[in-house]
What does this fold into?
Amino acid sequence: MNCIKPFALVTLLFLLPAGAGALTYNQTPVPGGIATINLPADVDPATLRYRERRVLVTRQADRAIAVVGLALGAKPGTHYLEARTRNDEPLRLSFQVSDKAYETQHITIKDKRKVNPEKRDMERISREQKQIKSALRQWSDTDTVALEFLKPVDGPTSSPFGLRRFFNEQPRKPHSGLDIAAPEGTPIRAPAPGTIINTGDYFFNGNTVFIDHGQGLVTMYCHMNRIEVETGQRVAAGEVIGAVGMTGRVTGPHLHWGVSLNDSRVDPTLFMTGTETAATGAPDIGGNAP
It folds into this structure.
């Protein structure tokens, strides 16, 4: 990795190794993944941008670390962070993204309108997409951000992150979250401290809650049976925010859990400790939030 200043002055940067403090991500950055990058001492964190979006910066001991979310559509190759020093000199930080092949999933949805919405549905969907995008792009300045998550629901994984999906044999966007199978009414808990920034009942997502954890880290909870929090409410890690349901586009009760970092949807399991990772092998009950 390179940090290139004017006059070709170069500083080497490195991805953090496995087990480096709270950041345990050790795989090569891939689409839907995370890049963790040591920053030069003189960088101004407020100026750090990736694809024009602000970037989460945390600290470990005496060093600043950028935690960058990579969208599922990110192309393999060299990517760049743009920043400025505290003396207002431009910086360009490079890192490599490798390719990753995600599995394919075919789902049958009985409600045809949830696959091919009618005109009246599209008007509603268009309004809701603006609200959802606004929530996922939320930025709030916070000194510390919790980067280790509790599992929000007890249950096995029914659909992992990143699946290339076909609804009624029609291709759709990749699965941008993690589905956790659980009976209706199972409590859903906040995985980390945060503020409720939006709730609502959406065409595809059903009853949904968005939590802002700070610095562009936002989590989303879909298909809920009921919502037990309000916009603006502060929640603690482990606090109940609602219950599992099967509202919206679903084939059975489950939680669709999404994580957005600098407006990129990333794999929620990257924020979970090994003991918190959901089990696999449950029957498929997907068909949820895009």
Q: What stands out?
A: Residues 219 and 259 are 5 Å apart (CA to CA). Confidence is low (pLDDT under 50) at residues 1-23, 275-288.
